[in-house]
Amino acid sequence: MSDGNRDPATKNAEDDTKIVPTFSLDELNRCKVQLLGRGAFGKVYVINGFPSLAVKEIWLNGQPDRLVEITKFELEALSRFSHPGVLKYHQVLANGDFLYIIMDRYYGDLKEFIAKYRKNRKSIPREVILSILKQLVDALAYIHDPTKADVNGNALPGIIHRDLKPTNMLISEDGDRVVIADFGLCKDAQHDGITFAGSPPYMAPEAFIHRKTGRASDIWAFGVIIYELATLELPSFSQHWEPEKAKEFFVDEWKPDLSPVKDEFIREVLEKIFILDPAKRPKAKELASLLQASDTSGDKQQVQGTVLETKCMSLETALKDANVRISALERERNIMSVEIDVLKKELEMKSIKIDALEKQFTRITEALEEKTRQLKAEMDQQREEVERWQKELDEALKAANEEIASLRKELTTKSTRVDALKQQLADAINKSDKLYQLVLMKDSSWTPLMCAAFLGDIETAKQHLSDKDKKNSDGDTALMIAARREHENIVELLDPTDWNGVTALMRATDRNDVKAVKALIPFQTKRKADYIKINKLEMYEGTALMVAAVCGNTEVVRLLVEHERDMRDSEGWTALMHAVACGHADCARLLVGKEVGMQDEDGKTALMLAAENNRVDCVKLLLEKESGIQKSNGAISLIMAAARGHAKCTKLLLKKEAGMQNKNGLTALMVAAQKGTYRVYKVITRERRWYARCQETDCPYEGCK
C-alpha cells in the first residue's frame, strides 16, 4: 500500500511555494480534519489550511520498545533526506503510542496512472515512460547511496526500500513528477536482510527461495515496474511463489519472456535487470547513466537540460528545507521576544514588591533581635536548671539500669529451670498416662514384649523378641499392640519388611489374620513387593490386596479395597484379575465395582481371565460390564472360552459377543472347529439355530440383535 497521500481535488506539493511551518501537537490536532486514505502502516489526513501538505498517523501500540525506538530513529533519518524523487518528510512528532509525519501531498500514484492507460487501451508514450524511469532510478540511486549527506553535511544511511511497486510511487497532477514513498519496510543498505517482506509480484527470486533481500532486490522490483509501464501488464513470472516452486522455476538457464516489450532499448534494459544472480544485476547508478543516455533524438542539449532540471529540483528542495528552518527560527525569535517583554514587566512588579518586603523585613528583624535578647536571658537561666535536673536523672537512671540487669539475669536463670521442670512434668504425665492405660488393659497374659510394644520402648522390646508370636487373653500379639499404638519402629522390629519388599501387612493377609490387617492398614498400604510367592503362584510388584484376592480372603479384601484399588502388578494385573483367575467369586464381587473395565499389558480383562480359566460364576458377574472388549490381538472372551473348550462359559458369553471376530476374521465357531472342542462347537451351533428362529420373532435375546 502507498502512504494514501493523494487527492485529485488538490494541487501537488511541488506547486505550493509557501514555506512549510513547524507544527506543535496541539496545532496538528486542530488542523487534521479529513481522512485521505489508509496505508499498511497508518492513516493519512488533510492538514486544514495547507493544501500542499498531508500528515501520516502511525499507531505503535503493542510494538516492542526496541522496535519503536528503531522506527523513530529511521523516520528521523528519512526526514533529513533531500531529493526531488523522494517523498519529503518535513517533520516527525511523537505523542504516546502515535507518530505523526508531516509530508508533501500528491495527486495520485503510478498504479492509477497505468490503470488509466489500460482502461483507454492506449500505450504510455515512450518519452513519458523514460521521463518517469529517469526520475525513479535517480531517486533509487540516492536512496541506496551510503555516502550521501544532509544539507548540514551530516552522514545519511543508505537504505533498501524492499517494497517498490506502483502504489508506492506518487505522481503529480500533470504527470511530470514522480516520487518514491512508503518506507515502512526499509532497512540498512549496507547489509542484506534475511526476511520475507514486500509485495509478491514485485519480489525477486532470492526473496522467495532464500528469504533474502538487498539492493539488487529493489532493482528487480524496478524492472517489473518498467515492464508494467511498457506493456500495461505484469510479467508472467511475477506471482507469489512457494520456495520449492520458485527453485523449480528459476533454474540457472532461466531467461525472461520479454516478447511483449516492443521497445528495443527498454527490452535491453530489462535483460540486464532480470538476472537470477543478484550480484550481476546493475546498480541503480548504472541504470541512471544508461537511461540518461537513452534520448532517441540524440540531442545532447536536451539531455543536459534534463540533468540541469534535476539539479535545479534538488536545489529547490534544499532551498525549501532552508526556508523551513529559517521560518522556524523566526517564529521562535518572535515567541522569545514576547516572552522577554513579559519577563521585564514581571521583573518591575517584583522589584516593587521586593522594596516593600525589605522595609517590612527590617522592622521585623529589629523586633526579633529585641525579643531574642530577652529570650536568651530566660533560656540561660532555664538551661542551668535543666542541666542540674539532667545530672540527677542520669544518676537515677544508671542505678535503675543496674538493678534491671540484675533482675533480668535472675529471671533468665529461673525461666530456664522452670522450662526444664515443665518438660519433666510433661514427660512424667505422658509416662503416667501410658502406665495408667497399661494398668487398665494389662492382665497376667501380657508379656514384657507386649508392654514394651504398648509403651513404644524399643530397647526393652529387643530383649524379648522370642515372645513375638504369643497372644494375650484378647488374642492380640505384640505386633498388633504396637500397630494400634502407632509405634511403627516396633512394628518393623517385630515383623520387618524383607529384602523383596514383603511387609507385615502382606504376611498377615496371606495367613488371613484380620485383626493384624486392621492394625497394620494405617502404616503399610499402597506398598508393592518386588517378589511374592503364594503357594505355587509367583507375583512381581504385588500388593497386599492382590495377596488377599489370590488367597480368597474375603474379609481382608473388604478391608483393603478402598486403600489399594486400581493398583497393578508388573504384568498389569489388578486384584480383580487375580481373584477371577483363582476363582474367588466372593472376592471378585467386592472388587468389581472398583476395578472393572481395566486391561493388563496385553489388553486382557478380568472377564477374559474368567473365560480362559472356566470361572463360570465370575463370567456371570462380569458379563454385563466387560463384554465386547478386545485384546490387542483382537481376541475376545467368547473366543478364549471356545478355544479352551469351556462350554458353560461359551454359552453365557454368546449372549453378548456372538458374531464378533478376532483380527484374523475368525469367529468362536471357527476357533472351536480348529481346536476340536466338540462340546463348545455343539453349543454354538445349537445357539445359532435358535438365533435363526429368533429373527422371525421379537426376541429379547441380545445376541439376536
Structural class: alpha+beta
Report on the biggest sheet: 5 strands, antiparallel
* CATH fold naming of the largest domain: Transferase(Phosphotransferase), domain 1
Strand content: 5-15%
Low-confidence stretches: 8-17, 187-196, 296-304, 692-705
Distance between the termini: 68 Å
Oligomer: single chain
**CATH architecture of the largest domain, please?**
Orthogonal Bundle
Q: Would you summarize the structure shown here?
A:
The protein is 55% helix and 8% strand. The protein has 705 residues and is α+β, with helices and mostly antiparallel strands. Strands 1-2-3-5-4 form a five-stranded antiparallel β-sheet.
Describe the fold and architecture:
Strands 1-2-3-5-4 form a five-stranded antiparallel sheet. A three-stranded antiparallel sheet has the order 6-8-9. The protein has 26 helices and 14 strands. The model is unreliable at 8-17, 187-196, 296-304 and 692-705 (pLDDT under 50). With 705 residues, the chain is α+β, with helices and mostly antiparallel strands. The protein starts with 24 loop residues before the first helix and ends in an 11-residue tail after the last helix.
